[in-house]
Amino acid sequence: MSPRWELNPDISTGRQVVYDLHVHLVFVTKYRRGALTGAMLARCEEIMRQVCGDFEAELGEFNGEDDHVHLLVHYPPKVQLSKLVNSLKGVSSRLLRKEYGTHVNQYLWGGRLWSGSYFAGSVGGAPISVLRAYIEDQKHPF
């Protein structure tokens, strides 16, 4: 029988690691202003796919509205999530403001597109109760 990671395309392997790390990210525009248009969201997805690629991560899903975006990212364990987030927000803000500056400036000021905060939630795997039970079962009596 094949190992689980050969049967599941979400499980990736590295030199000394097998992993399945996904994160749900939400970025909100500064002041929660509805500055994003459909064209801007499409361009934002392109930018964020490129940034994820630079980190050897994969943007699995992207969607948004005029004041926020949702991302589902599959990333390797060597990536610091905070650095990925800073790059996603920084690069997309810089390029979207450059390309859509006139429109963005109607809604936002101060050189920032995104709020300083963000949501990050781990995704996938078993519920905590199942993991706790599994770990408990691994204890060896000494």
Automatic annotation (TrEMBL):
It holds the Pfam family Y1_Tnp. SUPFAM superfamilies: Transposase IS200-like. InterPro entries: Transposase_17 (IPR002686), Transposase_17_sf (IPR036515). This is IS200/IS605 family transposase. Residues 18-138 form the Transposase IS200-like domain. The gene is tnpA.
